Amino acid sequence: MLDIATELARWCAEGRSFAVATVAAVDGSAPRGPGAALAVDADGAVLGGVSGGCVEGEAYRLCREVLETGRPARERFTP
């Protein structure tokens, strides 16, 4: 998450609404480790990344859903 922290601070200063998906834990091999994050703002702009694969698209979708509903989400992905 630290790799996108500066840009997220700018989004906050601009008053942008956004959601963040964060890798909480990894079991086995994974493209990104715990702490990797993907942020999506209300216009669909993206910062960071969590996987680079199909999980990336699902994380984006979940962020959009959280922005629309205002409800937090937690998801577990397995191979």
Automatic annotation (TrEMBL):
InterPro entries, alphabetized: MoCofactor_Util/Proc, XdhC_CoxI
Q: What is this protein called?
A: XdhC/CoxI family protein
Please give the Pfam families that the UniProt record associates with this protein. Answer: XdhC_CoxI (PF02625)
Please state every residue range assigned to the domain named XdhC- CoxI: 11-77
Listed transmembrane segments: none
Q: Which organism is it from?
A: Streptomyces alkaliphilus
